[in-house]
Each structure stands twice: as C-alpha cells, then as structure tokens.
Amino acid sequence: MPVPLLDLKRQYAPLREEIREVLDRVCDSQRFILGPEVEAFEREAARALGVTHAVGVSSGTDALLVSMMALGIGPGDEVILPVFTFFATAGAVARLGATPVFADIDARDFCLDASAVEAQMSARTRAVVPVHLFGQAADMGALGDVTGEVPVIEDCAQAWGAAYNGSGAGGIGTTGAFSFFPSKNLGGFGDGGLVTTNDAGLAERLRQLRMHGQSGVYEHETVGGNFRLDAIQAAVLRVKLPHVNGWIERRRANAARYGRLFAEAGLTEIVGLPEVVEGRGHTFNQYVVRVPKRDELRAFLAGHGIGAAVYYPLPLHLQPCFASLGGHKGDFPIAEAASREVLALPVFPELTPAEQEEVVGRIAEFYRG
Ligand SMILES: *Cc1c(COP(=O)(O)O)cnc(C)c1O
Asked: What are the domain boundaries of the chain?
C-alpha cells in the first residue's frame, strides 16, 4: 500500500465548499492586498496564539527578515542561530548584510543548545533565533538565561500551537515568525507568513516595513519592502484556523501510535523515536526518527511507495554559500550526526492506522529482511 508523506487533498475535501465560498467572497470584493480579510485573520490569529499583535506577511522567510529589519539588524551585526534548520533562518540574516553565527543543537530535541549559544555570544550579538524544529518548542527557559537583554526571534515556522511550559510559541521572544507554506500545520494556498509580538511599538514598525516602510501616504521614514499577505490567503487561513488544534491532536495521536507500533515490532533498539520533552508542546509538524543506513531505508520505502524525507541533509556551516564564514566538517558534531541519521515519516492528521502499520511493517522488513 503506498503511503504519501503528506496528502493535503484529504484536508481539503471536507473544507472544499466553505473554502470555495470565501474565495468567491474575495473575488467579488476585488480586494486582494491586505484589507478586511487580512485584518480579521490577524485578530483571530493573535487570539489563537495568545499574543497582542499579529502582522500578516508574505512568507515565513519574510516574517524572519522583517523581524530582523524591525530590530535594525544590519552589517557588522551577528545573529546566533542553530546550524541545523531550514535555510531561511540563516538566509534572512545574510540578506541584511549581517553575519549568521551558528550554534549546535541539543541531540534530544534538535533545537538550539543554550550552552552553545552562550559560547557564541559576543559584543556584536544583536539577536538569537531559536527554531522550534519539527514542531517542538526549544528550551526557551535555558535560552532566556543566556540571551539576557538580546532580542530573541522565535522561528515558529514549524510550530503553530507549540508551547513552552504553557506559554505559546511566538509569544515568548521579542517576535515570533510563522509560515503558512502549505505543508506547515496551518497552511495556505500558496506562500504566507505572520509576525507576532507583544510590543506595540515593534508591531507598528513591522506594519510599516511590510509596506515599503511607509509612515504616511507615500511618505517613507525607513526603507521596507513588499512583505504583504494576500486577502485570498487570509480568507483560506480563516477557514482552517478553527481546525488547527484538532489537526495537531491527530498528529500527536499518530506519533503516539507510531511509538506503540515500533515497540510492538521490537524496533526501538534500531529506530530512534522522537523525544517528546515535557513542557514543550510538540505539535509533530514532522515525525522524525533517527535510523542507521538512512539513505538506503529511504530508497527502500520509496520503492514501496512510502514517502519519507530528510530534514536536513546538510547543516548550514557546510552550505556552499556560507563557505566564507569558515565552517568545517566536525565543527558541529551533534548537528552533523543528525543530518546523517534523521528521517521524517508520514504523520499528517488524516493518516490512517493501516497506513502507519504499513510504514512500520516496511521498516521492519528493511532491517530484518
Ligand atoms: C518553512 C520554514 C521557513 C520559511 O517559511 P516560508 O513560508 O517557506 O518562507 C523558515 N524556517 C523554518 C524552520 C521553516 O521550516
């Protein structure tokens, strides 16, 4: 039985009528940029996330970029971030002419290690960017102890609905950057993003920056960009928003079922299951195991029509575009080991128990023959 890594059609089917109605509403209004749909979504998103301000932007990447612009980050500044994350976390820093400073991760949760951050802090550190990787919140308490007054930008792209000791992701740091890329826990019909903050002044700056830094009508105090969220995306996201907590619960239930199935199959000595750390609200945007012979297993699963993916095969210090930063193999051993061992398995909310049994059965077949 083939099992896709992600099947968005199953999420769309029950929402089809409602979504087509709101798309009609936007078409009839002929208002496509910001406007009432975006404003309503921002209010609803802020309430859902427990933050005072939410600013809709064009992507998760731009949510990171505009957060850094609002904090005045530029040439000569250093921004500390995990070496094991999606490229955009570092790309945003580099695009502003600032220097990405990499730190290793914690082997347990794949998130930024606070002691590694402490070792990288300098007089030029202007921000620290913890990434709540795979949907589990980073250790924000330990990180807060080492960052002190330095602003913290939470990369929440994979972590809608995650929490650290009950505080929602995106409301803990200075800003939170969310993505509505279709595969995220809350996904749009294209690119979209959101910046959250509890700082009213910062929210105002973010709103100006997403609109070319415009402070009055065709008056520009600063240089911003076009980082706006489309009304069509906001309208779709408003339909999905009331369902997202239920979808996260199903992801958690699927993760728990994998745990039982791998244990029943006697595979837990071979397959390293994801650690659900107490108080981190794991939302399982990805269900990531650690396995030996990872690439062979992935090819074997693909041969049986089972989708699996590697997030991420190359840590950032080894990316060609960052060669000038002087990174070498061996600099970040925990991230490098992760990049060799990780494999994301299907965990989307509509996945069936039979499909999960198929995934675990094929993995058992691979290791046992
Ligand atoms: C998806 C993602 C982003 C970028 O979001 P886009 O909306 O695709 O620009 C940034 N950081 C992480 C960790 C992500 O997973």
From this structure: 8-242, 243-368
DSSP E strands, 85-233? 99-103, 125-128, 153-155, 163-164, 167-168, 175-179, 193-197, 214-216, 219-220
Mutate to test the pocket of ligand 1, among 57, 59, 61 (most ligand atoms within 8 A of CB): 61
Question: What is the CATH number assigned to the segment(s) 8-242?
Answer: 3.40.640.10
Output the pTM of the full model. Answer: 0.98
Class of 243-368 in CATH: alpha beta
Given a cut of 90, whether residue 309 has pLDDT beyond it is: yes
Give the Å distance between the CA of 53 and the centre of ligand 1.
Answer: 20
CB of 233 closer than 6 A to ligand 1? no
pLDDT at 221: 86
Mutate which of 93, 158, 285 for ligand 1? The one with the most ligand atoms within 8 Å of its CB, which is 158
Per-residue pLDDT averaged across 107-131, rounded? 98
pLDDT greater than 90 at residue 129: yes
Kindly report the backbone phi and psi dihedral angles of residue 284, in degrees, each rounded to the nearest multiple of 5, phi listed first: 50, 50
| Mean pLDDT for the stretch of residues 96-100 | 98
